């Protein structure tokens, strides 16, 4: 899937180009494949000049490309350039050289202990057997784009790249996830907990196992009555405590995590057997759900004086 990502400033001209019913229809038609102006004007029952003007607007905005191809003489054929547009509504962060960012594929877990229902799929097929924890140890697990289990945990070990002489200031963990129910269920809460280096950071109660409407990245072979997408959540640990999406969860600080004591940083996602809402977990990878990422870790650090 081709995605155009924009800041608020960059989105102005794109929004102007899209604020027209004819242009939206042109993009919808071009989803089927490249087409020339004559064909577009006939399909839309518009004068040739009107269709050509709207195509030019979309081309100027960078949403379509037009090229000359041989046909009955030479003809202009237009193609859609993107399948999805994402506008970042957050203020752009200043570039900071002291951030270590690692995007871990969800299949690259180092350890797990899961109970059915459970399973793994790639972007094209099931991996191993359904509801069989032994499948989580097969070599092809690294291809996973969606992982689910009812209770237990899955652990990722991120390389510790903080330089010698550096001191950690903030750790952020971002993942797309949701509850796990048979097929999907919108009213299905689950208490999903994150641990860092074996220390519990905070628990988020997912409201649903989202399905019925296809995720932006979810492959077409995966049935819509199954889980489709999750919510992007952020766990943050700094010198003042631990937070989920900016809301304080506990008094656990960075100092307690002993970041520099090991060559890796352990991050676990799980559902406790005794959780109040033991509704399972789904984890989404780069080619499943709504967000093109795996398990994202950002480690902010400063240099010791």
Automatic annotation (TrEMBL):
Keyword terms: DNA-binding, Transcription, Transcription regulation
Matching entries from Pfam families are given as: HTH_20
Record's SUPFAM superfamilies? Winged helix' DNA-binding domain (SSF46785)
Q: Which residues form a coiled coil?
A: none
Signal sequence bounds? none
Gene3D superfamilies tied to this protein: Winged helix-like DNA-binding domain superfamily/Winged helix DNA-binding domain
UniProt KW DNA-binding keyword: yes
Residues annotated as domain HTH arsR-type: 3-97
Q: Does the keyword Coiled coil apply?
A: no
Organism expressing this protein natively:
Mesobacillus campisalis
Q: Write one Gene Ontology MF term.
A: DNA-binding transcription factor activity
User: Which SMART domains does this UniProt record tie to the protein?
Assistant: HTH_ARSR
Name of this chain's protein: ArsR family transcriptional regulator
